[in-house]
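Suppose you are handed only these lines of text.
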Amino acid sequence: VARGSAQGEVEDSEALPAIWENPADFQAKHQGLIDAATALQASAGTDLAGLQGALGGLGASCGACHQAYRAADD
Ligand code: HEC
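From them, the structure of the protein bound to heme C can be written out as follows.
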């Protein structure tokens, strides 16, 4: 998310200004997404349970960042 594109600065943005107040945490949550996606990739071709677990981790990484940094739809 580019600086200057927070909610209120750009029409229809749901990016909360907190992103720019906590850049290290935002970065960490982004890294969490990368790690979860890498784990999902690694589980491909294994078994269903492994795939489901990795998918859950990916979903959790989306939610963790949205909860903190994405405005709820109005
Ligand atoms: C590091 C933070 C972060 C992670 C991780 C993240 N998101 Fe988001 N996401 C955002 C922010 C911030 C917005 C709001 C962007 C805006 O409105 O400009 C957003 C918006 C969205 C939107 C709405 C786009 C729109 O046009 O309104 C979708 C869909 C979405 N994310 C899906 C996902 C999915 C699926 C994942 C996981 C695979 C994910 N996101 C992971 C931060 C994140």
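What can we learn from it? Residues 1, 5, 13-15, 26, 29-30, 33, 58, 61-62, 65-66, 69-70 surround heme C (CB under 6 Å). The radius of gyration is 15 Å.
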